[in-house]
Amino acid sequence: MKKLITFIAIFLLIFTVAGVFSGCSNKNSQPISDTQFALDTYCTISIYDNVPKKVLDEGFKAIKDVEEKMSVTIKGSEISQINENAGIRPVKVSADTFYVIQQAVHFSDVEKGYFDITIGPIVKLWNIGTDKARIPSPEEIKAKLPLVNYKDIILNEKNRTIMLKNKGMSIDLGGIAKGYAADKVAQVLKKEGVKHAIINLGGDVIAIGTKPAGGNWRIGIQTPFKPRGEYLGIIEVSNKAVVTSGVYERYFEKDGKLYHHILNPFTGYPADSHLYSVTIIAETSIAGDALSKIFVMGLEEGLKLAESLPRVQAVFVTDDKKVYITSGLKGNFKITDPEYVLMTK
C-alpha cells in the first residue's frame, strides 16, 4: 500500500483569510488566542475582546468535556458504553450526548439516510486516517452493512437512555460531535461577554459577532489538495457557522485510486459523488457539521436539499474544479483561485 496520507493534524481546513484583521485599529485588533489538539484535530480559539485568559481555558475545557463523553476511541466514554452494550441494554447518558444523538437522528431523516452515525462498523473496516487504513473485501463490507441503520437507535427521552437495537452495531459521532463542541465553546464565550471571536475546530468555524472594527468576518474555503493557506474563494459572515467536509481531509491511495473518509452508508465505500468538498453556512456548527455530509448525496440532490433548508447556504466544489453555490450566497462568494470557476444553475 502506498504511503498513508492523512490530514488529521492540518491546522486549518477552513481558515480566516490572511489580512482580514489588518483594517482593525482598536486595541483588540490582535486577539488572545490558543491552539490545542482535541477531537483528532487542532482547535483554535481567538478572542478579540478584553477578557481574562481563563475564558480561553473555559472554552478548551468545553471541548475536552465533549471529547471525553463522545469519543469512540476513549474507553469508558458514553459512546463506548453504548457501543459495548449494543443489543444488550440501554445506557443512561448525559444531556449533551443525548442531545447530539437526537440531533444526529434528526439530520439523518433530513438527509434521507446519507448521514448515519451507526456507520461505526464500516468506519472500523476502513480505518482511514490511521496507519491501519486498508481496503476491506466486498465480503467484509456486505457482512457489516446490515448493522448500519440509524432507525435502530432507541432513544428514551424520559430516562435519557440510548440503546442500539442489534449486537455488533456501533455509533461514530465523527460527523457531528466536533460541530457540537464548537457550539459549546461559543456558548461559553458569549456567557463571558465575548462579542468578537473566531472558533476553529479543524475546519468547523464559528464567527462570533463582527470584526472588532465592524464589518463581517471574511472566511476562506481551502483549495482541495493544495497547501494549507491556499483558498479557492471567500465568503463574508457574522454570527454564523461555516463547516466544510472534503475528500482531501483524510485519505489514502492505492494503485492510483484515492480512498477518502466520507463513507456512503448505503454502499460501505467512500462516496463517489464527483465532489471535492461541500461547505455549509448555518446558524449552528452542529447543523453545519451534520449537513456537510450532503456531500454523499452528490451535487444535484445535495444542492436541491440545501436550497430547501431555511437559514442554510452551501458551496459545492466538484472534482472538475467547478463551484456551485446556493441562491442565498449570490453576491457573497468570490472566487480567488483562477483554477476554479463559479457556475450558475
Number of strands: 19
Poorly predicted runs of 5 or more residues: 1-27
Main sheet: which strands, in order across? Answer: 3-4-8-9-12-15-16-17-19
Please, what is the CATH homologous superfamily of the largest domain?
ApbE-like domains
Number of helices: 8
Overall SS class: alpha+beta
Mean pLDDT: 91
3D structure, described in words:
The protein has helices at residues 54-70, 78-84, 95-110, 120-126, 138-144, 177-191, 285-291, 299-308; strands at residues 5-6, 14-16, 32-38, 41-47, 91-92, 153-156, 161-164, 197-201, 204-208, 217-222, 231-237, 240-246, 250-254, 257-260, 275-282, 313-318, 322-325, 333-335, 341-342. The protein is α+β, with helices and mostly antiparallel strands and 345 residues long. It has two domains: 5-67 and 176-342, T-fold (Roll); 71-164, T-fold (Orthogonal Bundle). Strand 3 and strand 4 form a beta hairpin. Helix 3 (95-110) crosses helix 7 (285-291). Its EC number is 2.7.1.180. Its cofactor is Mg(2+); Mn(2+). GO terms for molecular function: metal ion binding; transferase activity. It comes from Thermoanaerobacter italicus (strain DSM 9252 / Ab9).
